[in-house]
Amino acid sequence: MESIQDIVEYYDELFPVTEDIQNFYLQLTGSYRSPVRILGIASNTGTLEISLARNNCDVTGIEVSQPLLESSILKRRTQLMSIRFFQLSTIEMNKFLGKDFYHIIYCLNNRITYIRNQEYMEKFFFDCRELLKDGGTVVLHVHNYEKLSHTEKIMLSPRKSIRATLSTDIHVRNDRKVAVTQILETGNGKTRPIMVDEEVYPLVRKDIIRFGKKAGFRDFSFYSGFSLAPFTDDSENLLCIIK
């Protein structure tokens, strides 16, 4: 991400832990014996991870962005919970984290698609399988890239708070790669590019099933969001639950 520092101040406002998200994880964690061990990949500012730890989960968050990681660690310092944050990428996680350890692994807010290489994307699914305990769950949350089958540009609904608006478009570049541009507009009318023409891997349902089955997963459920509404061609996002 090109200017992630500019969004850290507003991140929790623009990507809040909603009631739907809280209820989703309450139901999911309830299916495992306590303490539920959770790995949050691309943990951003750590707000969701801290929320889960407050509910007696044992939580590990990994993040590659130093500004986001620092925000997470600062929040953790004031909390007495079973939670820790590390600066790790998905490529490194299988080397440094415990295998056959986690009940739940998740990667939200489209962050998984910044694994641009297909080989590394396949590795991600294999690594999740090794890090998970038997019966564990992977949760992925991405944009609906299937819309690009009939258009070359998608404008997502802007994320808004009192102080800022984040606009996102997904487009097909001249080299036929898929890319994302995000612009942050603050309350004083100033705009800041968060990322411009940033290449992503357009992960769709058939890819998730293909990569997942190769890694040993067998069950795939798709929804439009954390309310678990059915996924449709018009859905803006894709929530996938893999077991």
From TrEMBL:
Protein name: Methyltransferase domain-containing protein
InterPro entries: Methyltransf_25, SAM-dependent_MTases_sf
Domain Methyltransferase: 38-136
Source superkingdom: Bacteria
Source species: Treponema porcinum
Alphabetized Gene3D superfamilies for the sequence: S-adenosyl-L-methionine-dependent methyltransferases (2.20.25.110), Vaccinia Virus protein VP39 (3.40.50.150)
Cross-referenced Pfam families: Methyltransf_25
